[in-house]
Amino acid sequence: MGGILARPFIVPLCGCGGRGALRLRIGLKVGRRFSVLHKFSFVSVCIPLKSAFPGQRGLLLSLVEQNHPDFEVVFILENEHDGAKSVVDDICREFSHCRTVISGPASTCAQKNCSLIAGLRSLPPHTEIVVFCDGNSRAAPDWLVSMTEPIEMNRFEAVTTFRAFHPDPPTVSGVCHAVYASFITLSKTFFPKPWGGGTAVRRETLDALDMIDLWGRTVVDDMVLGNALDRAGIKVKMDGAHLLVTPLKDTSFKGFMDYLGRQVLFPKFTNPGIWLAGLVLAINTTLVFLAGVVLLISSVTALHFSPAACVVVVFWAIVLLLAYGCRWGTPVSLPYGPWLISVFLTVFLGTWLCVRSIFQKAVVWQGRIYEACREGVVLNVECEEE
Q: Residue 14 in contact with residue 41, Cβ under 8 Å?
């Protein structure tokens, strides 16, 4: 599994010689180590958790058993009665570098933000680098070393990555998750932004940005952190060579729509420019798709291909090439049929969710309803009715 996870993110580009593909390799070289360093900085890995699920222990162990020589793992739960408590308690008894923190319920921010704040406040004085990570993904053994090396070498203050979804079985709804993740990975390759599921930041930087205060009143963690880094002029390094892999079991379209709906809605509050650009792009892409289908059908029916129809054919060829390229770039091998279907479904469903977000004023996330306003500031928190 480690070899699979360490694959670089690869994007085929047209117009190249040979096999017609240029491999764009993003991230650090596999197996690279701190050959010029005399010591490692102490790293605290903060993992907020909510509820237990099958296979959770194995995923958490992939984060606990990293080959970094000097780090701790901080599991953060909302309360003592969380279903994941027994899992992390067993791990903490087995591994001395693991511990648990109880955050309590959030009242002025998202629950995940509340958990991250509790983790930050619990850090020992000698922590130099903080890594924020979700607990539902599998990491390669050298993931932590790769994420922290650019900070250790003083090349960057923050390093991020993303994930690849692994649906098993590869249902269309599950593959839609994988398609979306491949789009985001590609975008982060060219426009690096921190991802809450896997980001390393120098502790001094977090303190200077006053992230405890910012997270303590906002609805999402990563976009708020990204905005703070942008304001401070701090660049983020994207490590596409060490994507996390998130297994998906028996996922449903409702689960995908809930997940994608949140991703569409968050920037409406934190980054309205990005949200508006995404809305315009999604609507225009869908209109072009639909116009192309109508034009092709009319051309085939009339047995006459106009110049416009030829342009549509070229457009669809480019779309299919990009769809294939995104599949080739993910570290998880998925069948072509569901992948191509899911590409179009993701675009159409994403457009619907973008339009719907115009009228939404609250984010529903893990049983809570967060009413938010500009800059992601939370106005009210309510429990979702069963």
A: no
The count of other CB atoms within 10 Å of the CB of residue 375 is: 16
Q: Which two tokens stand for residue 166?
A: 């692994």
Tokens read off for 46: 């903060």
Single-letter amino acid, residue 99 = R
Q: Is the pTM of this model over 0.70?
A: yes
Residue 95's H or E segment, with its range, is none
DSSP H or E run through 170: none
DSSP 65: T
The tens digit of pLDDT for each residue in 321-376 reads: 887 777 777 888 888 888 989 998 999 999 999 999 999 999 999 999 999 999 99
The conformational region for residue 14 under phi > 0 = left, psi -120 to 50 = alpha, else beta, is beta
Would the CA dihedral through 211, 214, 215, 220 be positive or negative? negative
366 φψ region: left (φ > 0), alpha (ψ -120 to 50), beta (else) = left
What's the chain's Rg over C-alpha atoms? 22
Helix residue ranges, H only, the chain: 2-5, 56-64, 85-94, 111-121, 143-152, 172-190, 203-209, 211-215, 222-231, 253-270, 272-302, 307-329, 336-357
CB 275 within 8 A of CB 357: yes
Of the CA atoms within 13 Å of residue 319, those in its CB half-sphere come to 18
Neighbouring residues of 130: CB distance < 8 A, sequence distance ≥ 6: 43, 44, 46, 120, 123, 200, 201, 202, 203, 206
Q: Which residues on neighbouring strands pair with residue 163, listed in sequence order?
A: 244
Number of alpha helices (DSSP H) and beta strands (DSSP E) in the chain: 13, 12
User: What confidence tens digit (pLDDT) does each residue in 223-275 have?
Assistant: 999 999 999 999 999 999 899 999 998 888 899 999 999 999 999 999 999 99
232 burial via Cβ count (<10 Å: 0-12, 13-18, 19+)? exposed
